[in-house]
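note to self: dont lose this again. the chain is below, predicted strucutre after it. 89 aa total, dont forget to put it in the shared folder this time
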Amino acid sequence: MKKKDKLQEALFEKRPLIVRALRGSEIRKKIAEYLFDIHPSYSYTSEIAYRVKTTPTNAIGALRGMVTRYKEEDSLLKLKIVEEKSCDN
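---
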């Protein structure tokens, strides 16, 4: 099975979880929409926060999860809605 097909199958299986996560957080939804709009480009966390009019802390919480506010299992990274890129520096 191709990598793309496996990814689509995994996303289809997680669909109810993805819908619940996006309904549960307006910030998650805005970040997902923003990143979808700029795809295939990527953006820094501070830029994402600025574009969706939130704080960088809230953006990180929506992307990665945060103990006090955002569940890690509902984070955009954990649900594989977005992908993290890091630079060498």
